[in-house]
Amino acid sequence: MEGTAEVGSGKLFVIGDSDMFTEYYMSNYPTGPAIARNIAKWALGYNLLKGKVTPADFTGALVGMTLDLAFYQNDTLAFQDTVPLDATGNYECQLSQAGTFDIVAKCDHWLSRRVSNVDLSVSNPVIDWDLAVNGDTDHNNAIGLYDLNPLFVGYGDADPSIDLDGDGVITIKDINLVFVNFGMAGE
User: Fold this and answer.
1) Side by side, which strands form the sheet with 90-94?
2) d(CA 135, CA 138)
3) How far apart are CA 89 and CA 38, in angstroms?
4) Could you say which of 12, 77, 132, 137 has the lowest number of CB atoms within 10 Å?
5) Which stretches does DSSP call E strand in the chain?
6) pLDDT single digits (tens) 131-177
7) Which phi and psi (to 5°) does residue 43 adopt?
8) Can you tell me the distance from the alpha carbon of 176 to that of 16, in angstroms, rounded to the nearest whole number?
9) Of the candidates 105, 106, 127, 103, which has an alpha carbon nearest to the alpha carbon of residue 115?
């Protein structure tokens, strides 16, 4: 499928097919390639998955965090995407395929969650993610001994990548989250 979408003072040229967005070219469009990518996918009829992430044991800002989404069919990875969260935890993901999928979501230092048999053929499906288990500082989707090391080394520092409770500084509360969830693994 080939098409052209008029955008502001420029034109967005889309080259692709109905199964997979392959390439786009943008000219004279001042807001940049990220906007062009979304418009190109929209022009090809791609669906949008939306929702909200609610992370447990966290009081900080979610801006700057990302949500990793993996889409499986018959236990085989079909496609994946990483999308940003806004200040309240909302996300949007352009879907490159339709059908029924199991979706696995992983956000920063929370363990992954899985939702099975999601029909992505419906118009703009919504999935809210309740990320209940916090403490995965080494990002291996399990909470164990190695998750404590960065917290001990960074104790008292303001490091948002390992500030598990989001209060702005690494404290005993962050270490306690690892102990409370010790031995747990993601889905």
Assistant:
1) 90-94, 48-55, 129-131
2) 9
3) 20
4) 77
5) 2-7, 10-16, 21-27, 48-55, 66-73, 76-84, 90-94, 100-107, 113-119, 129-131
6) 889 999 999 999 999 999 999 999 999 988 899 999 999 999 999 99
7) -60, -30
8) 50
9) 103
